[in-house]
Each structure stands twice: as C-alpha cells, then as structure tokens.
Amino acid sequence: MKIKILLLAPYRGLKELALSLASEQTDLDITVKEGDLEEALAIYKHLENEKFDIIISRGGTANLLRDHVPQPVVEIPLSGFDLLRTLTLVKDYKGKLEMVAFPNICDDVIAVSHLMGIDIPYTVIHEELQVEGIIRQAKKKGVQVIVGDTVTIRLAKKHGLQGVLITSGRESVIEAFHHAKQVYQVLLQANKKYRAYEALLHELEEGIAMADEQGRISFSNPGFRRFMQLFGEPGETANPSLVELFPDWMSMVQTVNENKKAISYVNIGGRQLQWTLGIFEEDRHRRLYYVRIKSLRDAEDELEIKYAQPPVHSFTQILGSAREGKKAIEQAKKAAAEHLITLYGEEGTGKKYIAGAIHGSLEPKNDWFIELTVKEGTPGALSRLTDALSGIENGTVYLKGLEKFDELSQAAISRWLERQPNKVIMSFKESPEVMLDKGAVGQELYELISKHSVYIPSLRERMEDLDEYIRYFIGKCNEKYGKQIVGIRNDVLERMSEYAWKGNLEELEQMVDSFVRISKGHYIENDVLSLIPSDTGKSASRSGTVEIDIHQTLEEIEQEIIQRVLAEEKMNQSRAAKRLGITRATLWRKLKETKNG
Ligand SMILES: Nc1ncnc2c1ncn2[C@@H]1O[C@H](COP(=O)(O)OP(=O)(O)OP(=O)(O)O)[C@@H](O)[C@H]1O
C-alpha cells in the first residue's frame, strides 16, 4: 500500500518541481497542489476526505498547516545548495539588496556568504507580523531587492520592491519525500500501539471520554456512551457537549485547573454514577480533559458508597451533658488531628454524628465527606474499597465494616490506609480489644485501629440526658409532622428510663417519632405507654427471646416462662400478669400450683 501524501507548494515553481519528482517515487501516492498560507489550508479542507497520511509543505505555510491538521506535516528544507544558488544569483545584482528571513535561514546564509566572500546585509525576523514593517524600513533605506521566503517576497512586491525567492531545489524536495517515509514508519508503530489501547478501552466496562474545556467530546469508549445513553457509534450521532450532560461541568473544570482531580456523582437513567475529571494532556492550544464514569450501583452489594453532607458539622451540635458523653466528645476532639481515627460503640449511639463533627472541625476543611460501608468482605469489596479511596482527594471517609474482611485482607487494607492521604474515621460496634479476642480483627488491623480510638457510650450510660434527647427529637418530629407538642407525661418518661435501649439514640428517635405521629394534643400522653416494649435494662435480650429446654413438660415450660418474666419485672406480679396476658389471679393460681405440685 502506498503512502498517501498531499504536497502543498507555496509557489508555482515548487509545484512543478514536485510534480516532476513525484512520478519517480514508486511507494508514494503524491497529490500536488499550489497554495500559500490560508489558501493552502482551504485546499486541505477541500480534500480532507481523501485521508492523507502525511502533508508536505514549506516555510510559513507548513507552520500554519501544522496547527490545523491532524496529520504530521513534513517540511521541505532549505538546503545549502538552495542558498548557494540564490546567493550566486544575487551576488552580482547592481541594486541595493537586503535579505529578510527567520534566524535559521539567516545563519545558514551568513555562513555560505562568508565562504563565497560576499557581503549581504540581512534582517532577522522572528514572526511573520514583523515582515511588513521591516520591508517599509528597507524601502526607506533605499533597498531595491529583497531576498527571502514566499511571504516576504509577496509583501516586498506589494510595496513595489523586487523580490528574490530562496527556492527549494530538487534535492530538498527529495529529502522531504525521504523524511515523509520515515515519519510514516514511526506513525505505523504508534498506530499499532494506539489500536491496542483503543481495543482495551473498547472492552472496558468503565466509561472513558476525552473532551476540551468547553466539554466537546473528541473520544469516547462504548462504556461511556452506554452510561450516558448516547446510542450509535461516535460520529454517527452528534455527541452532545458535556456541559449539557453535567450542569456542574464548568466548576469541575475549575477544580481540575487548580491541579486537583474532581469527582462528582450524578444520576442518569436511574443509575448512580461516579465521574472523575482530570487533565489528560495539554497541547499547544488547548487543554484536554479525561472523564471516567463508573456505576456505583453495581458495587453496592459488596461496598456501599454514600456521598452526602455529614449529619452535623460541629461538636456544638452534639447534644448531651452526661459525663460519659462529654468524655467521648473531648476524646474525639483530640483524635480529630490524627490521620486514622476509630470510633466504637453500640449501634445507633451517634458514631456517624461524631464523625461529622470531626469533619466539620478540620482546619483547613476537607472537600468531601464520604461514607463507605463494607457489606461483604469479598475480594471485590476490597478492590473497590482501595479504588474508591484512591479516587478521593481531600476527603473525610467514614468507614464501616472492616471487620468483615478476613485477616489477610485486613492486613492489606491496614497498610493501604496508612499510605492514603484522606482522613479516615473507622466505625465499629465493639472495642478493638474485644474484636481481637474474638478473632474479628487480626493483629495488624488491631494495631491500626487501637492507636486513636474513642468509645461512644450507649444511651444506658447517659440516661441523665434522656429528657434532653427526647425534647430534641420531639422538636425534630414537630417539624416533620407539623405538630406543636411541648412535652411528655412523667409516666411515659419513667417507663422510657427503665427501657433497655439496645438500639440507642436511633431507637429512641424512632420511638419518639411514633409518639409524635399519634399524639393529638400538646403532650405525649400515657396512651403511648403500650408502644414501649416492657423490656427493661436487665432483660436477656431486646427481642425478648430466651432459650427454653423443650424436653420438659408443657407445665414445666409454662413455669419457666412465668419465672423469667417475673424476674424481669422485678417480681411485680401485676406487671408480669399484664405482659403474659393473664389476670393477676390466674398468675397467682399458676404459681401456687407449682408450689403445691
Ligand atoms: N448527638 C446526637 N444528637 C442527636 N441525635 C443523635 C446524636 N447522635 C446520634 N443521634 C441520632 O441517632 C441516630 C444514629 O446516629 P448515627 O448514625 O450517628 O449512629 P451510629 O453509631 O453511627 O450508628 P450505626 O453504628 O448503626 O451506624 C441518628 O440518626 C440520630 O437520629
């Protein structure tokens, strides 16, 4: 297959020369056209569909084309012969003469003219815009002949001077053909690599695209088009600008321009997507950005990623004056300065709230608060976890469920956590020591999480704050349900203070919520008492289940249940009878039966 070349000659003579030489090049398929600067560009555009491999041109025209065409542009050089020829021609000129050219040409001309023992005045130009002014000055000095490149000569003629073009000779054009062949070989190798990468990107589930600052997409893989619901091959359908797809595109570009990676979360077609923006490459004229898109939903079964504002922003929003609670807050404030922090305590004690307060207290602030919950300790969850963490910069990560991984994965993640830059607050239901004893965490993770750990006390340990919490939740629920409840009856409060609160503040909030929902007046009245389970702080378990030996007789089983309920109700027979759904008299009779039996 021949290499397809478009040769754009800035002057007629070069076109003729190129045409005569083109036929000798058996491995090149050369199209030759004449055009200078913009004119040449217009010719290129007209022939764009012919898919040339390489463009050949000269001087300013080659430079202009290089900025506007995707193919490599090979330049026809000015050889020593070219200069020699021109100097030989002009050396006997009678008129006053000056050469106007770019530094590389001037240097060569000076060297050759010294060899030939001729003295030719010259002016060096650095950009084309200077040419016209220099020609005017030359004219004022009485110069009659200008020696230079096509643009210079054109302008010299415009100002009524004689122009002598430094023309490219045969050997320069042939050299350009050779150069084009070399460039093509390099291009072939690069293309092979490019195609391999393209095939890889094609297979990738993740969406990848390349766009400029205005969000115009120049490349997208099928994954990207699937996520964005852009159907058809690129080019077939007009790619919408990313500005239309992501309303906060410009602010993300801003973040990226400040040398950060920008991450955002969008919902498209019911899918929660994470997209990351970064600078891909800067070329001479514009910045290119890459966009990576992946679905969070797919990973949700193993690792849940929630990206939201923390529930509170400062320690002053954490309620409670009980000693235990205050101690926890003081410890958390101190631990806030650490890179890796552990919070542990029963479910619903407010660990996430404390994490939010830590995040809010940081100076300088972190950009993100991200909640990562390990649902299953699978290898998939592990790689997603490290992947998610490496995608976050300048964030506070609230991480739950590390104990679900096996010891080896825990060790790997421990080393990983130490190296990553974000603040990580780990949350556990039990203390590091208890988890180590039980084998829930291995030695390496234990060492990591026991360094800066804070115990968040259960509600049972801060019962003096119960009233305050209830009032706070009533206020919250009034707002939710549009009620104006101002307080709670003492009987209800008393029963609540006897309750076990295994679900802690979370359970309390739910209970207050149900009270507020059904209350008609300004107070939470005794009619809600039936909604409080009669499970006291000393009960065996919150759900009220106990193990019974079913090898006993029915009567013995009944007796066992009665005794257990009685014990839980501190031997108060009325309360035990009520819980068992029998009258006090029946209970008394049943108790008596055993004594007699
Ligand atoms: N300081 C607080 N003031 C008011 N309400 C709070 C406070 N801390 C926690 N809560 C309430 O308790 C609920 C549970 O809190 P949070 O989610 O922080 O608990 P957690 O210990 O992280 O729970 P889990 O271990 O189950 O994830 C919150 O939804 C909120 O209603």
Automatic annotation (TrEMBL):
Q: Does the keyword Transmembrane helix apply?
A: no
The answer on whether this UniProt entry bears the keyword Oxidoreductase reads: no
Instruction: Report a single Gene Ontology molecular function.
Output: sequence-specific DNA binding
Q: What are the protein's UniProt keywords?
A: ATP-binding, Coiled coil, Nucleotide-binding, Transcription, Transcription regulation
Q: Which InterPro entries does the protein's record reference? A: AAA_lid_NorR (IPR058031), Homeodomain-like_sf (IPR009057), HTH_Fis (IPR002197), P-loop_NTPase (IPR027417), Sig_transdc_resp-reg_PrpR_N (IPR010524), Sigma_54_int (IPR002078)
GO biological process annotation, one example: regulation of DNA-templated transcription
Gene3D superfamilies in the record: 1.10.8.60, 3.40.50.2300, Homeodomain-like, P-loop containing nucleotide triphosphate hydrolases, PAS domain, PrpR receptor domain-like
Protein's name in the database: Fis family transcriptional regulator
Entry coiled-coil feature ranges? 187-214
Q: Where is the Sigma-54 factor interaction domain?
A: 318-517
Pfam families documented for this protein: AAA_lid_14, HTH_8, PrpR_N, Sigma54_activ_2
